[in-house]
Amino acid sequence: MTDILKEYGLDENKIKAFAAYGDLLVRWNEKMNLTSITEEKEIARRHFIDSLSPLSYGDFKGKSVIDVGTGAGFPGIPMKIAENTIRLTLVDSLNKRISFLQAVVAALGLKDVSCIHGRAEELGRTDLRESFDFALSRAVAALPVLAELCLPFVKVGGYFIAMKGPDPKEETALAESAISKLGGKTEDIKTIVTADYTHTLIFIYKKSPTPSNLPRPFAKIKKNPL
Ligand code: SAH
User: Fold this and answer.
1) Per residue in 163-200, is it b (16+ CB within 10 Å) or e — as a string?
2) d(C-alpha 93, C-alpha 88), whole Å
3) Ligand 1 geometric centre to CA of 92 (Å)
4) pLDDT above 70 covers what percent of the chain?
5) Structural domains in the chain?
6) What are the tens digits of pLDDT across the range 93-125?
7) pLDDT single digits (tens) 8-17
8) Within 13 Å of residue 173, how many CA atoms lie on the same side as its CB?
9) Ligand 1, atom 10, residue with closest C-alpha
């Protein structure tokens, strides 16, 4: 794992933090379902390095970031380790995962991270609404649904970055009307090619406030995407 992280250009302290995170992930994964990837090098490539990709395309220094449906902490925790001025909020609807994340934050001594147990569509109606520079999400839902879960959290002038597979064009086209109703506009798609995978980052700019009737309850979002 260490050589892969070194190759990426991380310093020794950050590499140590990633190694500790990897150990906790493997250990806790024996007791609860956190990831299907258990081999060290694969964890480094497919979870850690993949999670860092947004950092290459934006200035995250001192910015507030919410990771929606973070699971075992991806992409939020790796981004925070690499750029420690990020003010991070991690959200997941499964409380067991939140317990794991709290253990990681304590073990690594990460500051300015809050781990919140809840459903995104409900939290998007609390004071978390329109309070983040960035919302990020990886592997949670198809874009028309995901946009309604994530865009309400973003301040006007901020971005929602969806981390997607190799060919998100059709998904993005299907989500266009939802994105626009939520106050967003798709601005850019970046493609990341490695020896192991091709992934994309969809950058959605928040250009106007999300209307107060959104987000809707999950059953409605799912049954009838905007
Ligand atoms: N982002 C992580 C986890 C993906 S699995 C990764 O890339 O590895 C999807 C996660 O989203 C699960 O942990 C699930 O509990 C959470 N989730 C699904 N719907 C959600 C919702 N509406 N609100 C909050 N979390 C949700």
Assistant:
1) bbeeebeebbeebeebbebbbbebeeeeebeeeeeebb
2) 17
3) 6
4) 100
5) 54-223 (3.40.50.150)
6) 999 999 999 999 999 999 999 999 999 999 999
7) 889 999 999 9
8) 3
9) 69
